[in-house]
Amino acid sequence: MVAYGAEQRVRVPALRARWLTQTFVHWAFPTDQVQALLPEGLVVDEYDGAAWVSLTPFVMADVRPAGVPAVMPGLPSFAETNLRTYVRGPDGRDGLWFLSIEVACPVMLGARAIGAPYNQGRLSVSSDRPANAVSYAGSRWGGAPSYRLVVRPGEPIAPTDRDVWLTSRWRAYTRRFGMVWETPVEHEPWPLSAATVDGLEETLTTAAGLPAPTAEPLVHFSPGVRHVRLGLSRPCPPRPGPS
Question: Which CATH number fits domain 15-235: 3.40.50.620, 2.40.400.10, 2.40.10.240, 3.20.20.150?
Answer without folding.
Answer: 2.40.400.10
